[in-house]
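Researcher: I'm preparing a figure for a lab meeting and need a structural model of a single chain. I don't have an experimental structure, so a prediction will have to do for now. The sequence is pasted below. Please return the structure as tokens so I can convert it later.
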Amino acid sequence: MFEEKISVQIFRYGPTKDNKPGYQKFEVPYEDGLTVLEVLRYIYDNSIPITFRCECRFQECSSCGVMVNGKPVLVCKAKAEKEMKIEPLPGPYL
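Model: Understood. Here is the structure written out token by token.
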């Protein structure tokens, strides 16, 4: 049985470990209806610890906002795509 996978690039920076920010690539099993939040949780549980916010899971609080392929989304609501580049929202805190 072959399992379909999606390609995910996550923008990361660990100031104590990295010289500069960059992207790290992951492959995640795909199934219809998968959300970006479920992709992030899969990576966290099965690869390496990553940091992301998700408070309510009811698509109301907006704490889980990120950029996916250049568009702002809520990870608890947005459906996963076959290829994704996930970055923080632009703002003064960057």
